[in-house]
Every structure is written in C-alpha cells, then in structure tokens.
C-alpha cells in the first residue's frame, strides 16, 4: 500500500511516498535552515510561514518523483505532534484536506515514533527486541522496543536534549545554528584528549541523561579562554563530542546488556554524528551485537519516516477525523504499549 507522508513539525517541510512502510518511492525535504540561521535558532512564526509557502510544491514533487498518480495513494500519514504547533498545523491541516479530497484515510503520527521507525527504511532493519537510543534536537531517550509500535521507555534526559546541547555549544563558540553538523566537522580535525570535559553519566548503571552540566563546562572553559584560536576551537569541539559519544555509547551498551538484547539502534538527528556512529559501531561489534542506524538522509527530520510509522498505525486502524487537532508536547499515542 502506498502512503503519502507529510512532516512539518519544526523547520523542514517534507513529503514522501512510502510503500508498505519500508520502500521509499520519493522523499523530498525543503529545509528552512537558511531562514533561521541568522537568528541563531528556529523562529516559530517564520517557520509556519515558510511551511505555508513550501507545502504545495513539496507534496507535488513527492508524488511526481514517486512516478504515481495521486489516485494510486491508499492513505495519507502526517506528523500530529510534538513540535511547534503553528508549524505542525500547516502540514496537519493540509494532510487532512488532501486525504478528504481524495476520499482516503488520514493517519496522525507521533514525530518521535517516526524517528524510531526510520531504521526500517533501509535494507538492514533490526529484529525485535532491540534497544534504541533516540537522539534529536528535542529528545534524548532510551527505549526497549518489542514491536513496531511497542516501546518501553528506559531513560531520558533530565535537562537538555543532546542535539540542543550541540546547538547551544555551537552558539557559545560563535558557530551558529544548527550546531551539530558544524561541531561534528570541527571535532574531526581536533584532538579529543587535549581538553578533557566531564562525562555526565549521572549513575553509570542508570539510563537517564543530563547534558546541561557538560554545556556549562564548555562555557567555563570559554571564560578562561575567551578568544579561542582555530586550534582551540577544534579541540573544544572534539573534547565535547568525545564526552557526548562516550556517555551515549555506554548507556546504550549497558541497556542492551540489562535487557539481554542482541540488536541496538541509534536514531534521530544526532544519529548522523560521525563519532557517535563510529564509537557505537565498534562497541557493538566488540560485544557481538548488531548495530542499526538510518542512512544519513533519514536521521534528521524527513517524511519517509512518517510514512514508515504511518503504515503501522494505519494497519492498526488508527485514522483521524476532521476535528482532530495537532499537539505540541511529547506524548505517546494511546495504543502504544508503554510499560
Ligand atoms: O531529529 P532532528 O532533525 O530534529 C528534531 O526532531 O529535533 O534533530 C536535529 C538535531 C539538531 O540539534 C542538530 O544540531 C542535531 O540534530 N544534529 C547533529 C548532527 N546533525 C544534526 N548533532 C551532532 N552531530 C551531527 N552530525
Ligand atoms: Zn525530529
């Protein structure tokens, strides 16, 4: 079955056509990074306006690239939340109207479940059960996953999400928004041992995270060296990234051990991080675990992942009515088994 998927929860307007929840026939992402870059973060009102401009051409391109006629679509899936509510409403209202116009069902999905499902888009999906680390701009959580829509939350951040910490550190270093890719690039040229930042484990045997202290440690270092030269900038980036990667990797491996899982996954925008990917891949291989992470294009926000989870939600019979609304705060859908 073919699903048109739409995503507009933050600063990317995206549409995709996905077959049976795994085969991506098209995936179009219109990024607003250039618009928000000058403000050092996403400006919600600007995001909504840009979504309004982009939604029609992005959906048209997704259907054209898939090489199908819209009459061949079986359903529409759309991000219902969490996210910026003005931004969400653009994709959400459009999706409901589009589906209604075609006389096909519309499924509302949770953005986080979209990220979780992104690993099923490639040709190396994990088998159940597995432990997944969801690391994005808004979330840092560890889940024990027993089925396509069955997650047990094992731990989450108590303060900043890891992507948020990257963005804030980038701002402190004067490197702009979004910070993840820039710091990742700089870190690759620095020495991770030159400046040692703390490893915020909280408790090595617990699954919650905390990144605000690490961010403050970078701030304190910058007070001591207020005008870092290029070499120091690289070393700060490398030291910060090493600390993040070690903590994420440790907690993921420990979670797999506690649950007796043979498969681990990392998903979300920060799953694109080169050091996290590398460190987790090596740690998993040493322990004989299989490691799964999406292709880079499906780590950050995209609509293909919305089509992947939309398929499962549709099969479960969950469809939207025209009166249903978007939601801004994180919430797991009511039929998610959340022990
Ligand atoms: O999943 P995502 O696109 O959006 C949310 O749902 O939040 O994640 C965006 C986050 C941003 O904070 C961005 O800085 C971070 O992912 N990010 C990275 C990298 N690429 C994106 N963080 C570290 N290294 C990267 N290569
Ligand atoms: Zn996201």
TrEMBL record:
<feature type="binding site">
    <location>
        <position position="115"/>
    </location>
    <ligand>
        <name>Fe cation</name>
    </ligand>
</feature>
<comment type="similarity">
    <text>Belongs to the KAE1 / TsaD family.</text>
</comment>
<feature type="binding site">
    <location>
        <position position="167"/>
    </location>
    <ligand>
        <name>substrate</name>
    </ligand>
</feature>
<keyword id="KW-0012">Acyltransferase</keyword>
<dbReference type="InterPro" id="IPR017861">
    <property type="entry name" value="KAE1/TsaD"/>
</dbReference>
<dbReference type="InterPro" id="IPR000905">
    <property type="entry name" value="Gcp-like_dom"/>
</dbReference>
<dbReference type="GO" id="GO:0005737">
    <property type="term" value="C:cytoplasm"/>
</dbReference>
<keyword id="KW-0479">Metal-binding</keyword>
<protein>
    <recommendedName>
        <fullName>tRNA N6-adenosine threonylcarbamoyltransferase</fullName>
        <ecNumber>2.3.1.234</ecNumber>
    </recommendedName>
</protein>
<feature type="binding site">
    <location>
        <begin position="134"/>
        <end position="138"/>
    </location>
    <ligand>
        <name>substrate</name>
    </ligand>
</feature>
<keyword id="KW-0408">Iron</keyword>
<dbReference type="GO" id="GO:0002949">
    <property type="term" value="P:tRNA threonylcarbamoyladenosine modification"/>
</dbReference>
<keyword id="KW-0808">Transferase</keyword>
<dbReference type="InterPro" id="IPR017860">
    <property type="entry name" value="Peptidase_M22_CS"/>
</dbReference>
<dbReference type="GO" id="GO:0061711">
    <property type="term" value="F:tRNA N(6)-L-threonylcarbamoyladenine synthase activity"/>
</dbReference>
<feature type="binding site">
    <location>
        <position position="273"/>
    </location>
    <ligand>
        <name>substrate</name>
    </ligand>
</feature>
<dbReference type="Pfam" id="PF00814">
    <property type="entry name" value="TsaD"/>
</dbReference>
<feature type="binding site">
    <location>
        <position position="301"/>
    </location>
    <ligand>
        <name>Fe cation</name>
    </ligand>
</feature>
<dbReference type="InterPro" id="IPR043129">
    <property type="entry name" value="ATPase_NBD"/>
</dbReference>
<feature type="binding site">
    <location>
        <position position="111"/>
    </location>
    <ligand>
        <name>Fe cation</name>
    </ligand>
</feature>
<feature type="binding site">
    <location>
        <position position="184"/>
    </location>
    <ligand>
        <name>substrate</name>
    </ligand>
</feature>
<keyword id="KW-0819">tRNA processing</keyword>
<feature type="binding site">
    <location>
        <position position="180"/>
    </location>
    <ligand>
        <name>substrate</name>
    </ligand>
</feature>
<feature type="domain" description="Gcp-like">
    <location>
        <begin position="24"/>
        <end position="307"/>
    </location>
</feature>
<keyword id="KW-0963">Cytoplasm</keyword>
<dbReference type="InterPro" id="IPR022450">
    <property type="entry name" value="TsaD"/>
</dbReference>
<dbReference type="GO" id="GO:0005506">
    <property type="term" value="F:iron ion binding"/>
</dbReference>
<comment type="function">
    <text>Required for the formation of a threonylcarbamoyl group on adenosine at position 37 (t(6)A37) in tRNAs that read codons beginning with adenine. Is involved in the transfer of the threonylcarbamoyl moiety of threonylcarbamoyl-AMP (TC-AMP) to the N6 group of A37, together with TsaE and TsaB. TsaD likely plays a direct catalytic role in this reaction.</text>
</comment>
């Amino acid at each position: 079955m073919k699903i048109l998927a739409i995503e507009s929860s933050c600063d990317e307007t995206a549409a995709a056509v996905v077959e049976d929840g795994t085969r991506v026939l098209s995936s179009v992402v219109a990024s607003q990074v250039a618009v928000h870059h000058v403000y050092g973060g996403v400006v919600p009102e600007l995001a909504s306006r840009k979504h309004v401009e982009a939604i029609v051409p992005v959906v048209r391109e997704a259907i054209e690239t898939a090489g199908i006629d819209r009459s061949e679509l079986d359903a529409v899936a759309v991000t219902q939340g969490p996210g910026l509510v003005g931004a969400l409403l653009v994709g959400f209202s459009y999706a409901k109207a589009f589906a209604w116009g075609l006389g096909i069902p519309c499924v509302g999905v949770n953005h986080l479940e979209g990220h979780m499902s992104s690993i099923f888009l490639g040709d190396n999906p994990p088998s159940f059960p597995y432990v997944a680390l969801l690391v994005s701009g808004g979330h840092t959580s560890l889940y024990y996953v027993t089925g396509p829509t069955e997650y047990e939350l094992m731990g989450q951040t108590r303060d900043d999400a890891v992507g948020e910490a990257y963005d804030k550190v980038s701002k402190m270093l004067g490197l702009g928004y979004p910070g993840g890719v820039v710091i990742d690039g700089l870190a690759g040229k620095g020495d991770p041992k030159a400046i040692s930042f703390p490893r915020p484990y909280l408790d090595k045997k617990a699954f919650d995270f905390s990144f605000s202290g690490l961010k403050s440690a970078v701030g304190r270092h910058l007070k001591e060296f207020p005008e870092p030269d290029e070499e120091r900038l690289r070393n700060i980036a490398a030291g910060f990234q090493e600390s993040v990667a070690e903590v994420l990797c440790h907690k993921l491996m420990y979670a797999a051990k506690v649950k007796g899982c043979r498969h681990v996954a990392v998903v979300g925008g920060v799953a694109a991080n080169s050091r996290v990917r590398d460190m987790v891949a090596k740690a998993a291989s040493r322990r004989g675990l299989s490691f799964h992470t999406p292709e880079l294009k499906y780590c950050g926000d995209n609509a293909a992942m919305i089509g992947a989870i939309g398929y499962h939600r549709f099969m479960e019979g969950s469809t939207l009515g025209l009166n249903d609304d978007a939601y801004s705060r994180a919430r797991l859908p009511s039929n998610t088994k959340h022990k």
